[in-house]
Amino acid sequence: MELDSGGLIRLEKGQARPASEVLARAFIDDPQLIRFVTEPRKRVELLRSMFRIVLFHAVLKGEVYAVSPKMEGIAIWLPSGVPHITFRVMLRCGGLSFLFKVGWEFLWKMKQDDDFAFKLRRRLAPTPHWYLAVLGVDPEFQGQGCASRLLKPMLARLDVEKLPAYLEASTEENALIYRHFGFKVLQEAVLPGSGSRMWIMLREKGD
User: Fold this and answer.
1) What is the pLDDT of residue 2?
2) How many separate domains does the chain show?
């Protein structure tokens, strides 16, 4: 079924670079990354590289939407059958430069967190679903309804398709926001690599 986009645009691979800039600004204060990289400028550089890899992978394997051509906000959705990003996939998506920037120790901690989250998702959401891997809004446009505009079309589609939606919120504040869209907390967990908390949430399939 096609997404009734409500004005959203679906991004392609060539738009990954500007989209990564938006997401880097959106997640500059993410608590998981602050634990790894305390210096803000370096954090932005790493986020740009990391999100470029995530976006390349998601465009090929899932669906990526922006609020408008200006990319005020971006949502990355992956179907449940898509595996997480392995080292091999990362390198194929242009991750060699990212590896040199962050080093093996940083990358290993990130992989620990990613593997932990992936195993939890397989256990807590074993049936077909869509995974909201990333939702980020440029700080300049936060508080203007961009998150709602990104979420509502896909959630309406999933209600029709009778499929649940799954996500991990990195702050309690974000978890409260997602509750307004029908998500419920399944479990709170502590990521082994970073020591950060996350709230695992599921929105049940429509009746």
Assistant:
1) 43
2) 1
